[in-house]
């Protein structure tokens, strides 16, 4: 750095006088400006900054601070007074803690804060889960069925807020109240039915009954809640008796299987018997028709012969005699001898001779 050698001073030169350093030299000072090497005054800089700030802020420095504070407070109040309701929400404004009649719909709204406040509630479908899983140690879902069995029921309630004002101010804790009412309704319905209904046979009917009880109770409380559905997610015996219950279930399934097999065998045999009976009836009816037709035909033939006989009795009698003799004699061995012929010995074995000649002819 440069050193000033004025007055014969230097780093090792003559001793210092006024404003000189320990080696006989004064401290370095910035160049330029009037007044030689005099440094700028800090107080002067602060005073000039205050003057400039007074020129910018109307009313002076003290009045400007108040204006800034007013602007900040106004912006904060405006932020609190303006609120937004989302499409899945509804708002209820309160004036001095008393709710207004109208409900704020989705959009941008304004209220006189802090004289007025707003409570916002969601109106989309929500789910309330009740009960614990069967594997859990919690006993919140344990219920006594109508046949004195203990079941662990886990179900859920789907609901929407139909009246935001009633939902917010008629009950202190609507969700907790809904949970208690739903659990009580499920216990009531399960307590009137056997355990088999809740396990698999009548879940839909139980869910419908529970939904009706919950809706009626919440309407009595004026909760502003609409119950959409009740879904039974799981129903099982407690863990302590799960093995025994599984054995009972397997036995019941075997029983159902045996009953189904017996019914199948019974239906098969019954079908065969019915088929055979139908076949016998058809054969009997056919035999009946055949015999009746044959009898009718014989009777008709006799009537026809009688009519012909009545017209020519002698001819008919002779024809009947000849036809009868033909039927009698056509398959018998016959030896015909003319009475007018001589030379035939009556006692010759003519029948045997004829059979012998027939046998030789066949060979």
TrEMBL record:
<comment type="subunit">
    <text>HflC and HflK may interact to form a multimeric complex.</text>
</comment>
<dbReference type="GO" id="GO:0016020">
    <property type="term" value="C:membrane"/>
</dbReference>
<comment type="function">
    <text>HflC and HflK could encode or regulate a protease.</text>
</comment>
<keyword id="KW-1133">Transmembrane helix</keyword>
<feature type="compositionally biased region" description="Gly residues">
    <location>
        <begin position="7"/>
        <end position="19"/>
    </location>
</feature>
<dbReference type="Pfam" id="PF01145">
    <property type="entry name" value="Band_7"/>
</dbReference>
<dbReference type="InterPro" id="IPR001107">
    <property type="entry name" value="Band_7"/>
</dbReference>
<dbReference type="InterPro" id="IPR010201">
    <property type="entry name" value="HflK"/>
</dbReference>
<comment type="similarity">
    <text>Belongs to the band 7/mec-2 family. HflK subfamily.</text>
</comment>
<keyword id="KW-0175">Coiled coil</keyword>
<dbReference type="InterPro" id="IPR050710">
    <property type="entry name" value="Band7/mec-2_domain"/>
</dbReference>
<dbReference type="InterPro" id="IPR036013">
    <property type="entry name" value="Band_7/SPFH_dom_sf"/>
</dbReference>
<dbReference type="InterPro" id="IPR020980">
    <property type="entry name" value="Membrane_HflK_N"/>
</dbReference>
<feature type="domain" description="Band 7">
    <location>
        <begin position="80"/>
        <end position="249"/>
    </location>
</feature>
<feature type="coiled-coil region">
    <location>
        <begin position="248"/>
        <end position="290"/>
    </location>
</feature>
<protein>
    <recommendedName>
        <fullName>Protein HflK</fullName>
    </recommendedName>
</protein>
<dbReference type="Pfam" id="PF12221">
    <property type="entry name" value="HflK_N"/>
</dbReference>
<feature type="transmembrane region" description="Helical">
    <location>
        <begin position="56"/>
        <end position="79"/>
    </location>
</feature>
<feature type="compositionally biased region" description="Low complexity">
    <location>
        <begin position="20"/>
        <end position="30"/>
    </location>
</feature>
<keyword id="KW-0472">Membrane</keyword>
<keyword id="KW-0812">Transmembrane</keyword>
<feature type="region of interest" description="Disordered">
    <location>
        <begin position="1"/>
        <end position="44"/>
    </location>
</feature>
